[in-house]
Specification:
204 residues, alpha+beta, Beta Polymerase, domain 2, 2 domains, five-stranded mixed β-sheet, 4 helices, 5 strands, 15% strand, GrpB/CoaE, GrpB family protein, NT_sf
């Protein structure tokens, strides 16, 4: 398979804001911190047109309070990932048109997820629910802000993505392995930079 990207689109920010507002109406009682992350959150980067959203909750005990409150909405809960990543709860947000393909408009669990939902063309967003005290929260926020503040790193990442898009990949995970050396190196740099910028908030 080939991985295809679209040039940065300012509408991605609007899509994030719309979904953020929707989520605040559903899980606002948890006082979540909702952040736009990933390539669609960085002006100038091309990306797959799926919005990555990180929902920060105060404690890991709050993670399992989220799924029941997304029932009846166009979210799909990938509960099967909980064992591999117990610190995260992962959802996809379907496009409004997805129901025309025969998919239900309510949350699904575990093995109930039909194979067709793996089609990225019917997704508008990926949601990652994580405790704000987690190292995983820190590294995602740091990497986003680092790319925004360092155009030379952003250009290098863009060039890498363009080069990888010319190759054939077994699946998305295989493609992610191709980015892994760059991501891990720059995430380490990003966290160090971010902590230095926020000395009053973090103990280095």
């Amino acid at each position: 398979m080939r991985i295809t990207f679209e040039p940065y689109n300012p509408l991605w920010k609007n899509q994030f804001e719309q979904i953020k507002s929707e989520l605040e109406g559903s899980i606002g009682f948890l006082c979540p911190q909702i952040e736009h992350i990933g390539s669609t959150s960085v002006e100038g980067l091309s990306a797959k047109p799926i919005i990555d959203i990180m929902i920060g909750v105060k404690d890991e005990e709050d993670l399992d309070k989220v799924p029941p409150h997304l029932r009846g909405k166009e979210y799909v809960y990938y509960e099967k990932y909980n064992d591999d990543m117990p610190y995260r709860r992962f959802f996809i947000r379907l496009k409004d048109t997805a129901r025309h393909f025969g998919f239900p408009d309510h949350i699904l669990y575990g093995d109930d997820i039909p194979e067709g939902l793996h089609d990225h063309s019917i997704r508008i967003a990926h949601l990652h629910v994580i405790s704000t005290s987690s190292e995983h929260w820190l590294r995602h926020i740091a990497f986003r802000d680092y790319l925004r503040a360092h155009p030379e790193v952003r250009r290098e990442y863009q060039q890498l993505k363009e080069e990888l898009s010319t190759r054939e990949w077994f699946d998305g995970n295989d493609y992610n392995q191709g980015k892994d050396p760059f991501i891990k190196r720059e995430e380490r740099n990003a966290v160090q930079w971010y902590l230095a910028q926020h000395k009053d908030s973090y103990t280095i």
